[in-house]
Structures are given as C-alpha cells and as structure tokens.
Records
---
Amino acid sequence: MAEKSSPFIAPQPIRPSAPIEGFALDSTNTPPSSTTSDSHQTFSHRDILRRALNNDASNITPALPESIISPAITPPSTPGGTVVSQPRVHPNETTQTGTHTKGPKLLEKLPNVECIVRARIPTTTGAEMFLHLYQNDSDNKEHLAIVFGNHIRSRSLDRVQEGETEMDRMIRGAYVGRLHPGRVSSRLEDGEEVPNEAGALQKGHTESPLVRIHSECYTGETAWSARCDCGEQLDEAARLMSMASEPTSSSTEPPVDGGAVSDAADGPGGVIIYLRQEGRGIGLGEKLKAYNLQDLGSDTVEANLILRHPADARSYGLATAMLVDLGLGADASPEGIRLLTNNPDKIRAVEGPNREVRVKDRVAMIPIAWRTGGQKGIRSAEIEGYLQTKIGKMGHMIR
Ligand SMILES: Nc1nc2c(ncn2[C@@H]2O[C@H](COP(=O)(O)OP(=O)(O)OP(=O)(O)O)[C@@H](O)[C@H]2O)c(=O)[nH]1
C-alpha cells in the first residue's frame, strides 16, 4: 500500500535550478535526512513554524526544510508588477521565538506619482468625496486617494498639460468648484477661490487634516468577511473624514445672501490613501492560502511565514508621495497630519525618508465591537484571534 504523504510535503519536491531573486534557499540549514521525498516524515504546523522562528535573524529566509514547502505553492515574488525588486523578507525584519517584529520599509527616495484623473463621488451616506487615481514609477497598480473636503487638491492633476483644452481638463477632473451641464471652463467661476501655490485652497484651518493609509482587503471590504476589521476601518475613516470636512463653528462664515454656507467654511477634511497592497502585500491568492492555514491552526503571522512571505510585505513610500502631491507634505502643511492607525510602523514609514510628511498625532482605531461592548461591529472567533495577533506579535496599539 502506498505510503500516505504529509500534506506539507510536495509529492516530488521541485528544487529551483537557479536561486529566486531575493529568496535564496538556506543551504546551511540542511533538512534532516528523514525529510527526503522517499521518507515522508510528518511535520506539524508548529514544527515548521518553530524552525522558521528559531532561525538566526541574519538569515532573512525562514529556515524551512526544502522538501516541506512545495515551490508549487510559493510563487517567486509577491504580486503587483513591481518594477523595483524587493526581497521577500525585509532585511530590517528580525525573528525571535514567539514574536515576529519588523521595521517599516524605509525607501531612500520617494517614488514619482501622478494623479491621472479625479471625479466627484456622492456616497450612500450623503457625504461627498473626490476619488483621485494615481500612476507611479514603482509598480503598475492603480493606487487611489479618497479626498474629503474641496480644498485638498492634487498638484500633478492641476498642472497644465501641453495642448490640452478646457474640456480635457474638466474630463480629467482638473477643475475648480463643481461641474454642471453647460460649463465651458475648468477654471474659476464667479465666487470661487484661487488655489494657492501648493494646490490647496487657503482656508486658515485650525485643525490638521485626518489621514488614513488603508491597504486593500477584498475579503473584508467587499466579500463581507468577519476575519478582519478592514471594512469597518474603511467605513469609520470615511465617516470621520466627512465630519471633518463639514463646516465647523469656529470657521463658519455667514451664508452669502442667506444661501448655502460657502466652501470657505469647510473643516480641515481628510484623505484615505487606498493602496493596492492586498493581504499586507502578498496578494489575494496568497492571503486565501493563509486563511486556510489559519483554519488549520496558525495565526496570521505564522501563516505568512509558512507560505514564505514576510509577516508584512508592505511599504509606504507611495502613500508619502501621494500626500505630498495633495499638499499635505511638510513643505505645504508644516502643522502636520493626524494619522488614523493602530500600527506604529506606519507612522515613521509614512513620514518618508526625509520627513516629507509630518505626523502630528496618531488617532487610534478602536474596533466598534470593543467600543460598544459587542453591541455593534464585527463579531467572530476569527477576528478576536486576528486582533490579538496584531497586538501581541505586530505591536499594534489598539487603544
Ligand atoms: N496576509 C494576511 N493579510 C491580511 C489578513 N487579514 C487581513 N489582511 C490584510 O491586512 C491589511 C490590513 O492590515 P492590518 O494589519 O489589518 O492593519 P494595518 O494597516 O497594519 O494597521 P491599521 O492602520 O491600524 O489598520 C489588508 O491588506 C488586508 O487584506 C491575513 O490574515 N493575512
């Protein structure tokens, strides 16, 4: 009778003929002789993980026996069409038994970004926002800025392009004020304000704008998943920012001719930088594999490591560059931003290599279920484990 193989052993381990870029197999960590393909020793999740976590910090590859994880389930790089290749595990990352900490990926230079188009989106809550779509020279993804408040403007979008017509400008969203049928100019109409040099309209706000750097999560934002709080965080950030872009009592100007309050009365507003780094940068397919590993007993960090990904494969240079483009960098907004996050890594990373952005305050994102004693918000066994892992292993400050 054929011997039953371990689910973790590839039937025919395939060894890459050439090392995969940024991901060398550790030849010093020779697998035990009993792990050859014709001697199928069973390894539990914990065995695999213990080996990964006990590995010396200077060796950036978790020391998994080669035959245990099939190359068939470990694509050579995290997805995204990255132009600049990055190692699978960041060199800053250190591993210790029981914990897995990492520093943010700090880039030496910010990528170049350009806002290609912007459009007004009335939302189901009644609030309005402007969706900005960006291109960049670091990957080929469509990263987004969701802008609450009329005064936050993109420099690259507003820049005049050679040969463009007024209609071209309006179609790509480089207009001031509101579009309406019959409008012929992208520029000022009667009663509208002049953008300042940074692109932002002068308002004299007393409070700093709210900013959230949000990583894409198809499962949590679209597919109703109760494994994480990503969808809830996105909704909550939008709610807070739409409040922050409403007229405030301190800045409200008297309505002109008894009409609507003018734009000048808007609050400081906010921006959600929506980065297409699904699954903390490993992509949806790999995240779904990680979910299966979690159902088999691993936590979120362990599952990533078993799949030979870093615990967190993200970087935030694009977010910094987009904030600078939106006039929220230290050059145009020296008072700084208020960052909605529980992740301490993000704070330093978003500030950029030369402190291009200043984070004035961190605003915590407490899960709604925790705030309401379970009356509202997401409730599941999975999310409790997910949040505990973020606090215990990733240093998140959920308070
Ligand atoms: N690899 C992996 N990614 C996950 C998992 N659950 C959620 N994610 C992804 O995690 C990202 C969100 O990261 P989080 O760690 O929840 O939060 P954060 O962005 O680091 O910190 P906050 O700013 O406090 O929200 C999204 O891209 C999700 O798709 C999981 O189990 N495994």
---
Amino acid sequence: MSLSVALTKGRLEKKTVAMLERMGYGTENLKDKGRALVFEDTKKDIRYFLVKSNDVITYVNHGVADIGVVGKDTLMERGNQNYELLDLEFGKCKFCVASLPDQDVFQKVGHVKIGTKYPQVAREYFLSRGIDVEVIKIDGSVELAPILGLADGIVDIVETGTTLKENGLVILEEVCEISARVIVNKASFKLKRNEIMAVVRDLESVVKEDAHKNGFEG
Ligand SMILES: Nc1ncnc2c1ncn2[C@@H]1O[C@H](COP(=O)(O)OP(=O)(O)OP(=O)(O)O)[C@@H](O)[C@H]1O
Ligand SMILES: O=P(O)(O)OC[C@H]1O[C@H](OP(=O)(O)OP(=O)(O)O)[C@H](O)[C@@H]1O
C-alpha cells in the first residue's frame, strides 16, 4: 500500500531530505522541487507533501498523510492525537523563558505578562509553576516584547542564543528540549503497519548511526 508523508518545509526540510537520501529513498524530486508541493519518491511507493509545521499535524490528524515530520514545539502547542514514534535528533533547540536581566518574571509580585508564539506552552508552564500569567500571542520577533514593554518576559525557542544576546535578553529557565519528531496517524498505523514500520525503522537506523558516530552510544 502506498504511503503519504507530510514534511515540514523551512528549517527542518534540508535535514529531513538528507535523512531520506541516506536511507536510500528516491529524493530527486524533493531536492529539485521548484514550486511543486507534492513529490513522488522515485524508488519507493511514497509521496511527500511539503507544508508548514502546523499543517503537518493537520494532514496527519485527518489521515491524509499517514506519517508526518514535525518539531516537538508544534506538537506541544497543538496537542498530539497521533502516535509519536521517533525522535529524529535534529532541529534541536529549547523552549526557554527569557527577559531583560533586571526583570526576572519569577520574582515578580502579582501576575506576569508573557509574549510568545506558543501561548499554550507558555500558559501550561507558568500554571505548573503556580504563577498567575497573562499570555500575549505574538507571531514573530518575540524578543521585542519585553524591550518595548509589551510583556515582562517571553517564552520562545532558543537555538544558538544569538537572538537573545543581540537583544540584551537572558534565559531565566529552560522549559524543555525540542527536536524533530515522527508522528503517525492512528488509523493508518492499523491499516498500513508494515509499510509504516519499514519507514520508521529506516529512519531509526540513520538516527542510531549518527548517535554512534557522535559517541553517544556503545
Ligand atoms: N532557531 C530556531 N527557531 C525556530 N525553530 C527552530 C529553530 N531551530 C530549530 N527549529 C525547529 O524548526 C521548526 C520549523 O521552524 P521554521 O522557522 O522553519 O517554521 P515555523 O516555526 O513554522 O516558522 P514560520 O511561521 O516562520 O514558517 C520549528 O518548529 C522547530 O521545531
Ligand atoms: O537562538 P537563536 O539561534 O538565535 O534562534 C532563536 C530565534 O529563532 C527563532 O526565530 P525565527 O528566526 O524563526 O524568526 P521569528 O522571530 O520571525 O519567528 C526564534 O523565535 C528565536 O527568535
């Protein structure tokens, strides 16, 4: 049975395609893509869609894609109704709470205002800390919010730390680690278990090879 796979375009795209290539899959169409959005694997009975991260989850939720590759950040924000079968160990970054150095939101009396692209994650984190929070949804350049006084602090993704540093913000707490994950629609997993597991095992063998190379194993 053929498989449909939704891939996150943008930051995760290159590494995902490189991984498929190392698995011996036919990635020519994905690499030479022009403006196309659907790509047939030239060796396997698989078609790929390249979409934004939130849409990966939507396509997998609806079973239009059997498998999805998406960041843990997006899964945490949306909530996951699919199986999360594998950590691909790339696209690594962290969710952090940050602020200006003299505005530690964890020391503030009364409610704190947090600017973020991830309102659900921010709300849950502050509630778990027993802090009364007002979350302000921002679509980008989140670091501006405390600088301009829109919020006391932010919850955002930190990779190298450069954006925080260049804007004079500091990390107050690390919320959790993020990386790219493989999700599978539950009904698809019943109907196409063998085909899906073959892909997941191929992905896993590349992940393990890298872990071995990096000296994290054996
Ligand atoms: N420095 C980083 N900033 C943001 N995301 C990162 C970073 N490093 C890795 N990632 C991962 O890459 C995924 C895709 O990020 P990308 O910026 O391409 O798309 P996006 O978050 O949907 O943003 P946009 O709305 O601008 O398309 C994120 O969901 C996250 O898992
Ligand atoms: O720690 P760093 O390596 O500096 O990366 C983190 C930055 O990258 C992301 O922003 P993005 O580039 O997606 O732009 P955006 O602000 O428009 O979301 C994220 O929201 C941080 O601002």
